């Protein structure tokens, strides 16, 4: 009887160990990008620019910042940060950030753009005993982004506020 119990115990133990060895751990599988896809989108080389172009921004941004900006190159990415005086003499400068990706398309351009500005607004002020003025400022961030299709040297209005427009023009560099 002891022999039978011992054999039965060994068989159960062996079966249990064998079952554990055959169990595979759970593995989470993440999708792998297709070989024809890249993990991050890149401009289509067939639509890349082959000659210098000029991007022009003109007018007024958010009714606060006058714009007269021109960038020239082959891109496809154009980017700049500008520090400009846009207010009163005692106001801190405005910081403008512009980025655009330009691709050529059937006789024109496809532009994805982003424009931002950090504008100082006077919140309070005081005059010291010696007549010196002191002011406090609050900074306001404004932003505009989007995509447009443009024909060479034809302007498109990106924004209009109180009859003040911001326009973009793209065309061959001169």
Q: Can you tell me about this structure?
A:
The chain is 12% helix and 52% strand. The protein is mostly beta strands and 174 residues long. It has a domain of 120 residues. The strands form two sheets. A four-stranded antiparallel beta sheet has the order 2-1-8-7, with no helix packed on it.
In short:
By secondary structure, the protein is mainly β. It is 12% helix and 52% strand. It has a domain at 46-125 and 133-172.
Radius of gyration: 32 Å
Largest sheet: 4 strands, antiparallel
Q: In sequence order, what are the helices and strands, one letter per element?
A: HEEEEEEEE
Strand content: over 45%
Give the helix level as a range of percent.
10-25%
**Estimated structural class:** mainly beta
